[in-house]
Amino acid sequence: LDGCFEPESTAPVPDLADRLQEAERTLQEARDAIRKGAERPVTALRLGQEAERLANAVRERALRLWALPEEIEKRSRDFEVARPRVEREIAQAKEEFQSAAAVYAASSWMELRGVGAAAERAAQRAQELWRSAVDKSRAGQADGRCLEEAVREMEEAFELLDQASGHARTIRVHLEMLEAGFTQVGEFHYL
Fold first, then answer.
1. CA 131 to CA 2: how far, in whole Å?
2. Which residues contact 135 (CB under 8 A, 6 or more apart)?
3. Residue 90 burial (CB < 10 Å; 0-12/13-18/19+)?
4. How many C-beta neighbours within 10 Å does residue 9 have?
5. What pLDDT is attached to residue 12?
6. Least buried of 29, 74, 89, 145, by fewest C-beta within 10 Å?
7. Which of 160, 149, 127 is nearest to 68 (CA)?
8. 16-52 residue pLDDT tens
């Protein structure tokens, strides 16, 4: 898990500590620019504003990292609801396809070849990413990088679930159009 299983530490997140030190150095430069005998007020003002910007960026990043465990927990619950729904959609589309394959000529559903397998692969990859994200979030409670990676993987897992659902929908829509066309042809023959 790319260093996410290292022992927990109470040390600040490295990039936050580095950014905070940069803000402190900039603030010290601003102080130096207003020392008696070496006054450079414009420079001091610019450096003070830069130090404030850097400190605010550290604060925003720290708040984001603080909120990640809750966001991960919520997204995990959402995934646990979405995954079974998508799996049902795939199973239903697969069942409908098998029924149609028994009734309609192969040429009428050839363009669907591989779509069901792509849906299953996307759903499987989503599940793998979700498991990895959960592992990283548990292992990286004190590591912002692991938590951010967990969030990225969860988002990718949701994108893959959407993709799998889209493939299942493609199958259903194609089969509905096939059925509608067959019904219209049947009505034409009765006229």
1. 15
2. 1, 4
3. buried
4. 9
5. 46
6. 74
7. 149
8. 788 889 999 999 999 988 887 778 889 999 999 999 9
Q: Which residue has the tokens 């098998």?
A: 98
d(CA 140, CA 8): 8
Task: Give CA–CA dist 45/6, Å, rounded.
Answer: 42
DSSP state for residue 108 in the 8-state scheme: G
Measured from the Cβ of residue 162, the count of other Cβ atoms closer than 10 Å reads: 14
Query: Do residues 16 and 61 lie in contact, with contact meaning Cβ atoms separated by under 8 Å?
Result: yes
- Give which of 130, 87, 93 is closest to 112, Cα–Cα: 93
Q: Cα separation of 138 and 150, whole Å?
A: 9
Entry field: residues in the chain: 191
Token pair of 170 as six digits? 């493609």
b/e 136-146 (16+ beta carbons within 10 angstroms → b):
bbebbeebbbb
Q: Which residues contact 19 (CB under 8 A, 6 or more apart)?
A: 54, 57, 58, 61
